[in-house]
Design brief:
The protein is about 40% helix and about 25% strand. It is of the alpha+beta class and about 260 residues long. It folds into three domains: about 15-80, Nucleic acid-binding proteins (OB fold (Dihydrolipoamide Acetyltransferase, E2P)); about 90-170, Orthogonal Bundle (DNA polymerase, domain 1), CATH 1.10.150.190; about 175-255, Alpha-Beta Plaits (2-Layer Sandwich), CATH 3.30.70.1130.
Length: about 260
Amino acid sequence: MVRRKNEWPEEGELVVGTVHKVLNYGAFATLEEYPGKEAFIHISEVSSGWVKNIRDFVRENQKIVARVLRVNPRKGHVDVSMKRIREDQRTKKIQAWKIEQKAEKFLELAAKDLGKDLDTAYEEVGYELMDIFGDLYGAFETAAEEGEKALLDEGVPEDWAAAITEVAKRNITPPEVQITGYVDIKSYAPNGVEIIRKALKSVQDEGITVQAVGAPRYRLIVKSTDYLKAEKQLKEAAQRCIDIVEKEGGEGEFLRELT
């Protein structure tokens, strides 16, 4: 169960619930992000069309997404609507909730590494991570991509920063980026073809993909999980090609993008 720092949801908020009781006039659902809280969906808020039998729309153990209409903490009431949501909003909310479920598992693993439980993890660092990074998964994603220092710079305690980073690097693969550049290289030497091949092979040996666009132009493709490193690798590779050709009396030029 993914938790929120606030005890109660806010009016207008989208929430995820699990239906546990269906009556003729409405349904009750436990709120997944608010432990111990229950929402009521009146039959008039189940669907935008006429509802003859509520069980045609909701059933026990069904996961739903609903919009909060009213919250009355004094009476313990949360009224929600299933019909006041677009399908794209419903899909987006479910996807975000599933990602946060995964992030909560990561937090639990980090807590276990420190000999602590999930409740303690939330109190000591979980809610703070939500405030800093927007959600739990954002914190773990940052740790996976930027390392422990990114958490320390935000004031996360050292022991938690280390544990979170370790879990993040084991479980999250940073997204791969692909950047492309072009080199125009010409050689006027008798063995010019061999010189060009030598120049291109020098970058292929480092895992860079080379594609012939049409002499004298060649496409260089770099894949990496770090955009800045990929940019640096591309520029250095292109310059290496140019240096080899120019050393033999040829000429070259690097183009970041085709115009």
